[in-house]
Each structure stands twice: as C-alpha cells, then as structure tokens.
Design a protein that fits this description.
This protein is of the alpha/beta class. The protein has three domains: about 290 residues, Metallo-beta-lactamase, Chain A (4-Layer Sandwich); about 150 residues, Metallo-hydrolase/oxidoreductase (Rossmann fold, 3-Layer(aba) Sandwich); about 100 residues, Ubiquitin-like (UB roll), CATH 3.10.20.580. It is built from 14 helices and 28 strands. The protein has an eight-stranded mixed sheet. It has a seven-stranded mixed sheet with strand order 9-10-11-12-13-20-21, with helices on one face. Strand 2 and strand 3 form a beta hairpin.
Length: about 550
C-alpha cells in the first residue's frame, strides 16, 4: 500500500474515509496529524444484490491494519452497528487502544466475552475528558441520537481544530440520555472550528427530525387498538425505540418475545445500564401458547436481510414463529437506500400471509436519528465552522449538504468519496485531494471476514446460469469413452444425450492432437473448454462446470 505511506508525512494533516462517505453505513474514518493516525468508528454496511447470500460487509480494515501505518488509537462515537459492528471481526488484530464512553463499552463488550482480557484494549473516557497525544488531542462532545451517550469528537492540533459530528440530532426530550444542549458546544464556539466533518444523512429533508419521545402516544394507541399478535421490527441497536416498544407492551399487559441475537444483546445491555426496566422475555417455543391479542414480538431484520429471523418468519420457515392473517407487523425503521427491493419482498411475503402491515407511511411509528435542513442550519449557525467536509451519506446527500453550507456562506467545502486521501489545510482551508485508493467491501459470512472474494463471482454465476457436472471415463487407448452430464439450477431443459455426443465427438478429435503429451490436468482443461463452448453455442449461457475424468 505504497500510496498510504503519504499519511506518515510529518509536515501535513490528512483525512481519509475508509467507509461512510458516498454510502449509508460502514462508517470508518482515518485522521493523520503530522504522522500520527487515529481511526474513528468501525461500522458495517448492508450488502446489495451483487453479493448473493451475503447480508453484511465491512470496509477493508487492512487499510490501517498493516505495517505501513501505525494508528495511535481508535475512537468510537456511539454504539450503533454501522459505527461499531465491524470491530468484532478484526478485534484480534488491533494493537492500539480503543477509546469510548461507558455505554458504548457496555454495549459492545458482549461481542468479546470469549476473548481473554479483551477489556485491556479499551479505555473508557468521560465526555469532555481531554486525551492527549504528541500531535493532537481529542475529547468527546455529548449530543443526542437514538441511542444513549452518542458523541462527536473535537480534535485540537497545532494547525487548527476539527469537529467530527458523529450521528446527531436536536432532541430536547429524548427517551434515553440528556436533552440536546448548546452548553455542550460552548468550547467549540470558543476555540473556533477550522473544519467540520458532518453527518449528511438527512441533508435533503425539510422537516425537522421529531423527538423520539413523541412516538410514545402512537405506540400506546396501536397496542391498545390492534387485534391479533403484533410484530415490531427495528434496528437492533436503537435502544430508544426498544424502550418505547417495551414500555408500551408492558403497559398493555402484553407478553414479550424477542427474536434475534443482536436485539437480545441490545435489550440486555439496556437493562444492565438501567435504561429499560427488567422484564420477562418469553421463550419463542411458547409463541403459540398465549392469547393472540396479548403477544408482542420484537425482531431484527427490518432491512430485508435474507438470513435474518424476520425473513424466515416471512417465508414461514422459522422453527417456532408462525404468523397468519389478522396478525400485525410494524416496520419502525427507515429504509436504507439500496435495501428497497429486499424490504418490498419482505412486505409482500407478509402480505401473502395476510398480515396487516404498518409502516411510517401509514402511522407515526418512526423518527429519524439524524438532523434535517433546519436543524443543520441552526447548529452550524451556532458553531460557525470555517470549512466543511460532508460525510455519512450517499452522493446526493453530500451534495445537499454542500447546498446548506452555501446558504450559510461557508465558502470552503470539499466533496470527497471513500478512498480519497485529503490533505487538510487548517490555516487557509484549501483542503485538497492528493491521492486515491480503492477500498474493497469485504463480505462477512458466519462471523468471519472473507478476504478472497472469488467465490462471490462463482455464486453469481451459479445464481444466473446454474451448475453442470460432467463425469468422464476413458481408457488409455482413447477408444472407449463414457460420459454423464448432471445439472442443477440450469434454466433450460435439454437433450442430455445430444449434448453428450457433441462434447464427446469434439473431445475425441482434439485428443488425437495431444495424446502423446497428455495428463489428467490437460484432459480436464480440454474437456472444460469444450463444454463451455458447447453450452455457450447451444444456450448462450455459461454455467459453472465441475469436470471429473477417470483414466482406466
């Protein structure tokens, strides 16, 4: 990674988005202050249709887990999975301290309990506590979001100051944590913000993001009036939403079932931290034993993840949870861009089962955890940043964020994408892209990072063209050849005998030219090439081939 070496330059400051700019999710950022690097967040992303059978990806962590650079630390802004979810997959390779506040540690520690002495890598700090390194210092600045203890990061360097907002909104009456207060930001206003790296998720939304507490009457009404079982799906780490759902379920004397490892972990953490009152989570095996009007099921999988419990329930393949007409499902989450197709499939599956489907288009069941245009303008008018780099959003959101900056007369802005190495000019604010690297999205399967992704191409090929297996027995005189073709997932019926004869004829003719220098590998490659061309010629498709030749 030769071009990464520029980050070791002791004269300049740099910013690199490893993930999180130009997309929703995968937040992973690198700052380099005169040769000292620090990583901010370690998030996951949802996989798209280009990765069949994969639900989760992470930005390639080997950008910073290599011998070229040596980060001094990682800082976690809050405990949402798109900011901390990737950490568990490369935790063993981290040899630098991880800084976070108490709740963030309480949430993610459950991921590492099987690792001896895992806690030694973490340093728990308080909000506003100053942590100093040779070339920079930082402190966490508390804000409000849909999870307890979210924070932005205030970096101070000899060249100037940077504020990395993290996820935030103006919530004066949050369900968990303290209300939004400008008192927390007095130090930023006093010290001057040379660069603000800011959340762009809702930069095109005109409406303000309403308070999480405003959802309480809505869920109260729904739990009071809906007949039949109620399923609520939301993001597993949305602690505030979980508290709203659980408190209203208990208020109406509902029996609560929870399905999904991550959402159980989130609820248990919230109970441990006294954010949610302890309650009985019933075993899902007892799902059919209770009055239908008294059941609330809380479940992950709101984004249509194919391997989630919710998808199994929708497809009626879950071992214990079976739904039917007159049951209800509430989608209490935003559709992340790129997941619309999967979510639509999920809703159609529930519709086929006869469920009453409720989303934010039907009832007030979701508020965003991110600021809209009015909130961003109010916040920036207070902070008065001198330059801006938009982050956390797709390209359209980044552009909309720049429009807000223009309206506020913030003249120094930089539009980056993940992989752009930006040299920061904190004096004159003339930040510039000096290099670019390609950053892969690595799939995660069965809790492991898959670094060799050729299998993805094979999966795609199998998905579209099927598999053909050809077994061939041939004697060493080449005068007796038997062949058998098997197929799986191949879209067209075909006369196997005719295709076999066509391949055999070409194969035997070709052997005449190589029989003095053949071996099994040569014969395998020859038969593979002939088979590919035969199927392409007859069907205009190229299935995945498995060739087996036996010489007798």
């Amino acid at each position: 990674m030769k071009n990464i070496d520029i980050l070791n330059n002791k004269k300049n400051n740099y910013f690199l988005s490893i993930g999180g700019i130009g997309e929703i999710g995968g937040n992973n950022y690198l700052y380099s202050f005169e040769g000292e690097q620090v990583i901010v967040d370690a998030g996951i992303s949802f996989a798209d249709d280009s990765l069949p059978g994969v639900d989760i990806t992470i930005p390639d962590p080997y950008i910073f887990l290599n011998n070229t650079i040596k980060p001094k630390a990682m800082i976690l802004t809050h405990a949402h999975e798109d900011h901390v979810g990737a950490l568990e997959y490369y935790f063993d390779k981290i040899d630098f301290p991880i800084y976070c506040n108490k709740f963030t540690f309480s949430y993610i520690k459950h991921k590492f309990k099987k690792i001896p002495n895992f806690e030694k890598k973490f340093i728990i700090i308080k909000n506003n506590e100053i942590v100093k390194f040779n070339n920079f210092s930082f402190q966490l600045i508390p804000t409000t979001h849909s999870i307890p203890d979210p924070a932005g990061i205030f970096f101070q360097t000899s060249s100037g100051n940077i504020f990395h907002t993290g996820d935030w909104k103006i919530d004066k009456n949050p369900v968990t944590g303290d209300p939004f207060s400008y008192d927390n930001y007095e130090i930023l206003r006093k010290e001057k913000i040379d660069l603000l790296v800011g959340d762009s998720t809702n930069a095109g939304v005109k409406e303000i993001s309403r308070s999480e507490s405003e959802l309480d009457p809505s869920f109260d009404h729904l739990f009071k009036t809906l007949k039949g079982r109620i399923i609520v799906t939301c993001f597993s780490s949305n602690i505030a939403r979980l508290k709203t759902v659980i408190s209203n379920a208990l208020k109406h004397d509902k029996k609560i079932f929870v399905v999904g490892r991550s959402i159980k972990r989130a609820i248990n953490t919230a109970i441990e931290e006294n954010l949610i009152d302890n309650f009985e989570i019933l075993n899902e095996k007892l799902f059919d034993d209770y009055n239908r009007d008294k059941i609330v099921l809380i479940c992950t999988g709101s984004q249509g993840e194919k391997n989630s419990a919710l998808s199994k329930i929708a497809n009626n393949t879950h071992n214990h949870i079976k739904l039917s007409a007159k049951d209800n499902i509430i989608f209490s989450s935003k559709e992340i861009p790129g997941n619309e197709k999967s979510i639509s499939y999920l809703k159609n599956s529930f519709s086929y089962l006869g469920l009453n489907i409720i989303s934010d288009e039907d009832e007030f069941v979701h508020v965003s955890g991110h600021p809209g245009i009015k909130e961003i303008k109010e916040f920036y008018s207070y902070l008065k940043p001198l330059s801006l780099i938009p982050m956390h959003g797709e390209y359209l959101h980044l552009k909309q964020h720049l429009k807000i900056a223009e309206d506020l007369d913030i003249q120094k802005t930089s539009l980056l994408l993940s992989g752009d190495i930006c040299q920061l000019d904190l004096t004159n604010k003339n930040h510039k892209i000096v290099d670019q690297i390609i950053i892969d999205k690595l799939p995660v399967i069965q809790n492991s990072i898959i670094e060799e992704v050729n299998f993805i191409n094979e999966r795609g090929k199998i998905l579209n063209n099927g598999i053909v297996s050809i077994s061939c027995i041939i004697n060493k005189n080449f005068d007796d050849l038997k062949m058998q073709i098997y197929d799986k997932g191949f879209p067209f019926p075909f006369n196997e005998q005719l295709i076999e004869e066509e391949i055999k004829e070409i194969f035997l003719n070709k052997i005449l030219f190589i029989k003095d220098e053949f071996n099994e590998e040569t014969l395998n490659n020859l038969l593979l090439d002939i088979s590919k061309k035969t199927f392409s010629r007859n069907f205009s498709l190229k299935p995945e081939f498995f060739i087996h030749i036996s010489l007798i």
